[in-house]
Amino acid sequence: MVLAAAAPTRLRAESASTRLQALVDAEWQYRLQENPLLATSAGDHRYDDRLPSMTPADLARRAAHDRETLATLRAIDRAALTPAENASAEILARELADAVAAYDFGAYRIPLTSDSGFHTDFADLPERLTFASVRDYENYVARLNAFPRYVAEEIALMREGIAAGFTLPRVVLGGYEVTMTTHVVAAPEKSVFFEPFRRFPAGVPEADRARLTQAGRRAVLDGAVAGYRALADFMRTEYVPRARATIAASALPRGKDYYAGLVRHFTTLDVTAAQVHEIGRQEVLRIRAEMDAVIAKTGFMGNFEAFLNFLRTDPKFYAKTGEDLLKDASYIAKRMDGKLPSLFGRLPRLPYGVEPVPAFLAPRYTGGRYIPAPVGGTQAGEYWVNTDALDQRPLYVLEALTLHEAVPGHHLQIALQQELTGLPEFRRFAEVGAFVEGWALYAERLGLEAGFYRDPYSDFGRLTYEMWRACRLVVDTGIHAEGWTRAEAIEYLETHTALSTHEVSTEIDRYISWPGQALCYKMGELKIRELRREAEEALGPKFDLRSFHDAVLDQGAVPLTVLEGQVRAWIAARRAA
Q1: Are the C-beta atoms of residues 555 and 566 closer than 8 Å to each other?
Q2: Sheet containing strand 352-356, strands side by side
Q3: Nearest C-alpha neighbor of 566 from the set 538, 523, 536, 528
Q4: What's the CA gap between 361 and 120, in Å, rounded?
Q5: Are 182 and 360 in contact (CB under 8 A)?
Q6: Per DSSP, what are the bridge partners of residue 394?
Q7: How far apart are CA 159 and CA 161, in angstroms?
Q8: d(Cα 53, Cα 150) in Å, to the nearest integer?
Q9: How far is CA 145 from CA 135, 148, 224, in A?
Q10: Strand 368-371 and strand 381-385: pairing?
Q11: Are 477 and 276 in contact (CB under 8 A)?
Q12: How many other CB atoms are there within 10 angstroms of residue 249's CB atom?
């Protein structure tokens, strides 16, 4: 009787698991084919000679595919899946639903932000691709030659946005042109895209090098330069003059619903803009009290505003050269490398380097960023440090920045995720902002447990970074849901943090041009800290920090609701042990 009753259950589970696995595998292959740049970064080189197609027909076809796949996924009996399979199903369902919503709102009509976009991603190709064979060079030439077509398709979508009033705000576009005009050069040798042709690896025969170099020269001028020239001309003559005067996402067509969806997308939680706004205000009050306590330790005689002015203007807080700044960042990173075994049971194999932000990006760019390594390539991960405008790059935030972008932040988490086994491929490359950015902000605070922030100014820098992320909750929702002006947002961020004036303005423009993304950091960090407290209270002396961190990271980037179940399952297992 028992065996007879169990058999249908077992077959039902096998059927659901098999259907999910087949769907997940098919979806991953579809994504690689539709997005050749994703395929390359994931270590699949079947499409290395291509760029994505962004025609309206392609976008409509992809949206139809996403709807159909989502319906198929929802028809699978989730009760018959294992916890790991359920997590995969939930992550995929969220990705598909969010993609459909983005298409329905027409988000594709804004393919760039105030400091980045499809055109800046393309400019990074020479540094991120592997050049080891004749075929690698021929593929690269094909991609350069495809760039004008790619640009023309994006321009067509942006023209659609102009007609519909769905554009970037004009106010964030000051200085944007450097990301395009830098690449409009007269001689191919002056282009970053020509760099791979300056040196050939042993795998490229001498007999092919002259041919490839000549093809490269033509492709740089007729492909890359022509594409950037067309984009720069379009931006100057059509887009900027007709970009909208408003700044809020809620001012876009169907904007209130659009922003409400972005809040849920970027936080992965069922919260409203008003709730996030209030959470941010409460965090601002808490962090401000900690800041005041640190100021008292410095012996500074003056109010909060005077202390911020002191930090922003005293030369001792700023590097004299870009090389000095890079050396300081490298030293901090190397010190933290030595602390990692005390915090984690599992560490990534992939190393990382410290590099300056490329010159064509630096003037409009943030203080630093992490650039993941392509899977299976010859590059390491890269921690970028902005060496432009050194009087705006304070040293007192460098520890927090480094721990966030390098280790134990982005590099450690993303490299570990890429090295995971036993998960569907799409999860190795999942970009769940609330998890990824929440972890990196949590990683900043881990510096306290690893012996960093001993200098009170550096500790204030840590707090100013945490305050910055708390302010983001207030400012982003303030701009896009509460009717704040750009000036009000700048004033709020400037009066609550020790960020430089330049960084305050570039950050506000980023929030205006990328609504909702700024909510990832603090909401994710709060959830991770909440789960850690829950684990510490539940386990008492059985709590092990290294094991906890491994439990958080060992499934890759997941929505915060999935993370809750993941950590609680780990707590239950530790209790049983």
Answers
A1: yes
A2: 352-356, 381-385, 368-371
A3: 528
A4: 8
A5: yes
A6: 318
A7: 5
A8: 7
A9: 15, 7, 7
A10: antiparallel
A11: yes
A12: 26
CB 524 within 8 A of CB 560: yes
What does residue 174 show for φ and ψ, rounded to 5 degrees?
-65, 125
Cβ count within 10 A of residue 80? 19
Assigned token pair, 129: 């691709």
Type and span of the H or E element at 437: helix 433-449
DSSP codes joined into one string, 120-167: HHHHTHHHHS---SHHHHHHHHHHHHHHHHHHHHHHHHHHHHHHHT--
Compute the distance between CA of residue 89 and CA of residue 80 in angstroms, rounded to an integer. Answer: 12
Point out which residues pair with 169 in neighbouring strands: 244
Tokens of 238: 């059509």
Phi, psi of 129 (to 5 degrees): -85, 160
What's the Cα-to-Cα distance from 99 to each of 87, 105, 510, rounded to whole Å? 18, 10, 22
Place of tokens 């990006």: 361
> What is the C-alpha to C-alpha distance for residues 208 and 200, in angstroms, rounded to an integer?
10
DSSP string, 287-351: HHHHHHHHHHHHT--S-HHHHHHHHHH-GGGB-SSHHHHHHHHHHHHHHHHHHGGGT-S---S--
Residue of 384, 387, 415 whose CA lies nearest to 401: 384
Give the count of beta carbons closer than 10 Å to the beta carbon of residue 2. Answer: 6
Would you give per-residue pLDDT tens digits along the chain (577 residues)? 444 444 545 545 569 999 999 999 999 999 999 999 999 999 999 999 999 999 999 999 999 999 999 999 999 999 999 999 999 999 999 999 999 999 999 999 999 998 899 999 999 999 889 999 999 999 999 999 999 999 999 999 999 999 999 999 999 999 899 999 999 999 999 999 999 999 999 999 999 999 999 999 999 999 999 999 999 999 999 999 999 999 999 999 999 999 999 999 999 999 999 999 999 999 999 999 999 999 999 999 999 999 999 999 999 999 999 999 999 999 999 999 999 999 999 999 999 999 999 988 888 788 899 999 988 878 899 999 999 999 999 999 999 999 999 999 999 999 999 999 989 999 999 999 999 999 999 999 999 999 999 999 999 999 999 999 999 999 999 999 999 999 999 999 999 988 888 889 999 999 999 999 999 999 999 999 999 999 999 999 999 999 999 999 999 999 999 999 999 999 999 999 8
